[in-house]
Design goal:
About 70% of the residues lie in helices and about 0% in strands. It is mainly α.
Length: about 70
């Protein structure tokens, strides 16, 4: 049986990785495999590619839990 992680949890791990924490370290301490975390990083990059010019705002708001401003 596979474990389902919330999007908030995934985003938190991605943020930690972007701040410099190695995938291996995150996997050892928090549970998901480093391959899963790497996949979540790639998925976030794809989501960012969709929003294009609003990339910085998307990262800031999606990973901090702050609601994105409407433009």
């Amino acid at each position: 049986m596979s474990i389902r992680y919330s999007q908030d949890f995934k985003d938190s791990l991605v943020k930690l990785h972007q701040e410099g924490r190695p995938l291996k370290s995150l996997a050892e301490v928090l549970g998901p495999s480093k391959d899963s975390i790497a996949l979540w990083v790639k998925q976030l990059e794809k989501r960012l590619a969709i929003v294009g010019g609003r990339k910085r705002n998307f990262i800031t708001h999606s990973l901090t839990g702050i609601e994105r401003p409407s433009y």
